Amino acid sequence: MEELYQLIEERLLQIKTAYDKFNLIANQRDHSNPDSISSSGSEVRDLSQYMSQIKRLEKIRTFKENELMEAFSALKSFDSTQKKRFHEKSYYFMKLIRNDFAYAKYKQSEEIKDVAKLFLHFFLHCNMQGKIEEIKKVYSSTKCAGVFLFSNSLHKSSS
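^ thats the sequence. predicted structure below, dont judge the formating
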């Protein structure tokens, strides 16, 4: 779980750094001629290299996050104590990463639905549109898997 939050925290830090680099260049431009930059091209080159580095790291991060989300979707196989602890620790680390994050309808449970809602609200709070879509897909596939497993257990019990 900490790995997922570390990846999110790295992403937010890199966004802040890129924003600062953009502001440095923007503050150096000549206001009488908006197309000109009064500094040397070294800041622009530095920004360009940094953005290329972010692009490479983002691909790696996305791959790692997808693996973690697959593990999250397999959460049904854990017992209720493990699921409650996972839910509790998730909320704790979310508040550490973004101390302004609060989920008013938070309730500690072992239900997949509650864990998925918690992650959904965290991703909404962080404006992570790609992760919002992923969590919706994971939840819908888990919901369908639960129906399939339930129907199989009924079929086995009747025979």
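Residues 2-158 form one domain.
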